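Duplicate of earlier report; Transcription factor Pcc1 input re-posted below.
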Amino acid sequence: MANATMSKINKDKGKAGREYNYKCTIAINFPSLLQAQSACEVLSVDEEIGNRVIKSLHVKEIEGENNEQRQQQGTLIVDVASSEAKMLRVSVSSFYDMLAVFLKCQQEFQQ
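Output:
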């Protein structure tokens, strides 16, 4: 399950003093910590093109319950910030496309 929040932020400076006024945070829950870490490693390989968008990915460990046993689950947190609303939309849309490819590959190799 993925949750996304978008907001306009004030004067968050990044690369070369550029202001990143728009921000989106995406949280994707995975059934295992290993799957979340794999997604983070695969999806963080490519940097954003140009300096109008910055993106960071990290994994947050969560405790879940599965069949009365404690199991470590993971949440992939993706923070995207941009100086333009359009560029934020393009970057987030591209991220979801790459996530879909990752999930399809993961599903195929597990079978």
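The first strand starts at residue 2 and ends at 8.

Merging into the original ticket.
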